[in-house]
Amino acid sequence: MALRNTVALLVGLVALFHTWGAWAIVEVNMEDKVEVSIKETAQITCMYTSDEGSGGMVIEWFYVTRSGDKQRIYHQDPVSNTVDKGTPYMDRINVSTATGVVVLTISDVQVEDEREFTCRIKGLTDGSGEGRTKLRVFATPERPTIEAVETGVSVDKFEPSKIGTCEVKNGYPRPNVTWYRDNMPLLSSPGDTIIEFRTTTESNGLLSVVSELSRKVVKEDKNAKFYCEVNYFVPGATQMTESAPITITIYYPSTEVYIWVESPKGKIKEGDVVELRCTGNGNDPSALLSIKHTRSGETWETDTAQINATRINSGEYECQIVDTESFESLTNTTEVFVNYLDPAVVVPEQPAMVLQGKDVMATCNAVSSLQTETTWFKDGEEISKGHTLILTNATFDTSGTYTCVVSVTELEDMQTNGTLIVHVQGPPQIRKDRTVIETVNREVDLKCHVRGYPVPTIIWTAGGKVSKGFQKVTENGVESVLKVQVTSDMTAVCNASNEYGSDTSTFNIKAIKTETAKPPKKVKKESNGVIIAVVIICLLLLAVLGSVLYFLYKKGKICGRSGKQDLTKSNKDNIVVEMKSDNTEEAILLGVNGEKQPQSHQ
User: What GO annotations for molecular function exist for this entry (predicted)?
Assistant: First the structure.
């Protein structure tokens, strides 16, 4: 009986044990995905619940390979924990546990780490649980670069033409590229807009995208700005960046043509360099432009013409543009007028003759295409305005040269001038008598200034001689110069005459005979010469005297005896003679009276 009870107890325990195993369930909860940027650290959390508690659990981490197989990277049981060798994560993972939580940490995340990770929790009994999380990796791409087509694009192309390319490098996942024209997105449209994409996987697993835009352009695209927008993913969000804008050269035919005067601005006058410009409203490098003077037929095979303006260049100028493909042409014209100013004409043309006291009138005009005004000048001073000049009550002061300046009021640099010469007819007028004081033996210039017309004839009378002198015609008459050698007081008379009368002027010349009147330099030279001559004569006399004395001394004619004789002068103005006989060397000094001098006087 006791044995039966024991067996029944064991059977009950076994049944109870199996009952517990059937109900020992492990529940695992994980996020669907974990997002992380490249080269950063990812944390994948595995949360579980179990009736057995956490002390006796077996924890394992797996990743799913590209072929779909599971590869274990971590194992933990109540006794030990191990990171599996030979996997890409053996040096980059760390697992931390807490009650009901297991965290897998992956450092230096790369693109190839984007895969599914599995967390498996097993109890001591047969119960277990498993969860999965997809690791998403993101890389921010570089800023996009854009490049426009180098050549221009023509609007008459039947197929879309390449506009440009946009490239974005090193992004993950694949960035999305969208083209824009002036802030409006462009979509592919057959026969109008074509957008192509090309994706390249770099060695580091990142993706680069090149997009090419082709479009059938229109004239309005000449100022349009094209750019590309790149949308890319980051953990938990989407971001956007744009390229720099580009413009392209659009070739299109002209529908209108223009011609105008580029310079000078305003009215044109003879002598100006006129520049004409010709252009169309299109942009066609193959179009031919030309400018032609309609009247003369002169043609410039270019869009610019330079003309040295004269009045014959006035007229119509035509600008023509020719399409070299269709040979269609457009023309337009403009009118050019060159203003002119002829040389001034003065009436009378010959020098004007007027009698003293009478009036003279002259006119000055110049033919011009514009309004003119005339100003008269004499000796640089303005004397009258208007085309007509009237001079009243003429005098010799009226004689001279008058200049008329004809100017165009609208163009300050446009002017011409003429000359009028006026001669006032009348008897001569001379500057009256005057006295000239000069020194003897000096040449004097006598000047006789005479006004009158016709030019007076001048005759000089001086020292009984008649001369015309040196004559020079001036604007108001004549000037005569007579050179006179002054030796004594004299009178010179200047006599001027013409057909209207005569006039005289007397010059009284007084000669002053004084030594001081001699030029200082000349006196100084003569005085020096006299002194030198006197000194030379004195030296010659002394030489002669010395020779005579020496001769007499030698002959013994001095003091009544022969022998050597020396003459000296004593302190008391006595003449002392030193006498020596032929037989002795003894010298006796005698005074003037023949007295013997004391020895102390020797």
Answer: laminin receptor activity
